[in-house]
TrEMBL record:
CDD domains, per the entry: TlpA_like_family (cd02966)
One Pfam match: Thioredoxin_8
PROSITE patterns associated with the record: THIOREDOXIN_2
InterPro entries per the UniProt record, alphabetical: Thioredoxin-like_fold, Thioredoxin-like_sf, Thioredoxin_domain, Thioredoxin_ResA/DsbE_sf
Name listed for the protein in its UniProt record: Alkyl hydroperoxide reductase/ thiol specific antioxidant/ Mal allergen
UniProt entry tagged with the keyword Ribonucleoprotein: no
Annotated source species: Natrialba asiatica (strain ATCC 700177 / DSM 12278 / JCM 9576 / FERM P-10747 / NBRC 102637 / 172P1)
Biased composition (Basic and acidic residues): 217-233
Entry keyword set: Electron transport, Transport
Length: 241
């Protein structure tokens, strides 16, 4: 069920703080998308009517050339950045530390992607290695994840669940501890929902199994009755003879 062709590549990267966000002094910069309104968003944004956003990823350390869907079957942490942004550079090793620690516990339930408007792949890969990148790396292409989740400027980190709901909108360069404390509760909540869904599925399977058992039992009872009738008929013929 894992849709791990996950997202990569968006245009603008953000600086607005949404509900539950962590403010860390990000500096607004030019962006590739316009916010939906001039006000700071106060509500989380869900999956768009057009379905999951498919972003293009490039080949780099920890990343493969391809596409990535958001939302996907798990929790997605999306970092919007520009290589020339000082706060973005400072955020990278912090995100690396939080991501590495959480991956040990949650594995494929966690997907991390960094998104930039920069499209010179060679320069981007060089920057990526210099700043400890080791996860999906993407750039803007087609529909914009930034506009869908009201992200403007950079750096911004948002957390998106499997239903497309945004749970955090962090600006600036929060340290690894803040990042972990923001991401981990969403991973726990995802696992609880997944366990509930699996439990409901098991319950349906048990009902189906019980139904099959009843049918088999009824069939055996019918066969037993038919055998009894045949034996009774044979017995009557013997007595008549």
């Amino acid at each position: 069920m894992k849709r791990r062709t996950l997202l990569a590549g968006v245009g603008s990267v953000g600086v607005l703080a949404g509900a539950g966000g962590i403010l860390s002094g990000a500096v607004p910069v030019d962006s590739f998308t316009e916010p939906r309104s001039g006000n700071t968003p106060t509500e989380t944004t869900g999956e768009t009517d057009d379905g999951p956003i498919e972003l293009e990823t490039i080949e780099a350390t920890g990343s493969e050339a391809g596409t990535l869907e958001v939302p996907n079957d798990g929790v997605t942490v999306a970092m919007f950045f520009a290589p020339s942004c000082g706060n973005c550079q400072a955020l990278m090793p912090e995100l690396r530390a939080a991501r590495d620690e959480l991956k040990e516990e949650y594995g494929d339930d966690l997907t991390v992607v960094s998104i930039t408007p920069e499209q010179d792949h060679d320069e981007l890969r060089e920057w990526w290695d210099e700043h400890s990148g080791n996860w999906y790396l993407g750039f803007h292409s087609g529909r914009s994840l930034a506009s869908s989740y009201q992200v403007v400027g950079y750096p911004v980190v948002i957390i998106i669940d499997e239903n497309g709901e945004k749970h955090r909108h962090m600006t600036g360069n929060p340290d690894a501890r803040k990042l972990k404390y923001a991401i981990e509760p969403e991973l726990e909540a995802y696992r609880e929902r997944a366990a509930e869904t699996e439990s409901e599925g098991d319950g349906e399977n048990e009902t189906d199994t019980d139904g099959e058992t009843e049918n088999e039992s009824a069939a055996r009872e019918t066969e037993t009755a038919n055998e009894s009738e045949r034996e009774s008929g044979e017995s009557d013929e013997t007595e008549t003879n």
